[in-house]
Structure formats: structure tokens, C-alpha cells
Amino acid sequence: MIKRFTECDLHLLNKQELLLWNNQKRHFRNGEDWVVGRVTAKYAIGKCLDINADDIIQIEIHNDKNGVPYSSGGKQNNIAFSISHCDSIGFSCSSRGVPGIGCDIEKIRSRHPNFAKYYLLEREKESWFKSLSHEDKDTILTVAWACKEASYKSLSKKINQPENIENIKVFPSSKGKEFYYYAECVHGVGYWEKCGRYVLCVALIGEN
Fold first, then answer.
1. Residue 97: left (phi > 0), alpha (psi -120 to 50), or beta?
2. Beta-carbon count within 10 A of 102 CB
3. pLDDT digits over 165-178, tens only?
């Protein structure tokens, strides 16, 4: 689910969320991001559970001590989901029966010259630039970053989650916009898409 923030999104917040919005989040620079992230997550979870769009206000989303979102109660316990937001645009994904899922939305923009060194090994960087040679540098680095961020989020519930994002290795697949990633004892797959000046990405923990 992806959408831009509107005032109507406030009608999909429950009492506790509205209280947090009115007392705190509405005064923050990224307050609208918080709202639309919550709302898209409710839509995504609702689709997995066949909940009518008018009833998704009942879905409660919380954050653990590390900031990782979770939803509790009945069938919601079996749903894996992830939230991302950027420029008042919310992007969320959910799935039944998967050990972990992650998503990310990033705006394509110029990065600091040392940005890639923070999260890409040289062989990762070479692989992405070779695979996306038809794209400009800013797009390539944004795609690689979004794929790595989504992969990291997909591992958020793992006991042995990598401490740092650079501990996850992400490479483009030969199958178009697919990619694969691996960390210690874990690996997964994902898909990315460019929409205008934004990159959207979803990653799943692999089975074997």
C-alpha cells in the first residue's frame, strides 16, 4: 500500500494514536510521515486479513523498544509487515506466513561522495553499477541503499539480526529488478521499482 498524506488519514487513527498526534507528532517536521505510515500499514494488514477498509481503524500498531512496529491481537500475530515513509508519502507491505518482510521508499537525490562507503562493499558497488549501467549515479546509489534498508528491516524480528546495515550484503539479480541479500546464517530476496523520483523496495527472508 502506498499513498500520500491527506487530512482524511486522521480519521483512520484510533483514540490512542490521535492523542499522540495531537499532543506530539503534529508538531514534528515528519509528523505527517508518521500518520501516513501508520495508515498504509493498516491498509496492508487489513488486506491480508480481509478486513473491510472502513474497519481498519481497529488495527492497533505499536513499536517495540527498538522502534520496530508490530501489531497484536488474534490473527494479526501471524502477519509480518513493514512501514516506510518519505516526503509525506507512506509505503507499507504485509504478508502471511513469512518469517520477515521489509520495505523502503527513498527519494533519488545527490549523495555525499562518501555515502556509498558507509553501506556498500566495493564488490557490491561494482555489481550495482554494472547491473544498472543505464541509470545515473544518484539513482544507482539510491536503489542499492533502498534494497539494503528493506533487507535490514526484514530481519528486525530475528534474534541474530545484524548489528549494522553494512553487515548485510545485497546484490542485484540477473532477473531484472530482483535482488538477493545475505547476512550471517540468513538470506533473502527482494524487488525494487522506480516511480518518478522515488525508489520503492520490498524484501523477504528466504526459506532455504
1. left
2. 27
3. 888 999 999 988 99
Q: H helices within the chain, ranges in order?
A: 15-23, 31-49, 115-119, 122-131, 137-154
Nearest to 107 by CA among 133, 155, 62, 143: 143
For the record, the C-alpha cell of 15 comes out as: 483514540
Q: In terms of residues, how long is the chain?
A: 208
How buried is residue 99: exposed, middle or buried, by Cβ count under 10 Å (0-12/13-18/19+)? middle
pTM for the structure as a whole: 0.91
Tracing cell 482524511 back to the chain, one arrives at 8
Spatial separation of the C-alpha atoms in residues 190 and 202, rounded to whole Å: 5
- Give phi and psi for 178, each to the nearest 5: -85, 160
What is the grid cell recorded at 129? 553499477
Radius of gyration of the chain, Cα coordinates, nearest whole angstrom: 17
Tens digits of per-residue pLDDT, 18-36? 999 999 999 999 999 999 9
Q: CB count, 10 Å around CB of 38?
A: 25
Give the Cα separation of 122 and 125 in Å (integer).
Answer: 5
- Of 52, 68, 69, residue with least CA distance to 60: 69
* Nearest residue to 83 via CA among 112, 64, 61: 61
80 contacts 94 by C-beta, under 8 angstroms: yes
183: β partners: 186
Q: Tell how strand 69-71 and strand 61-63 pair up.
A: antiparallel
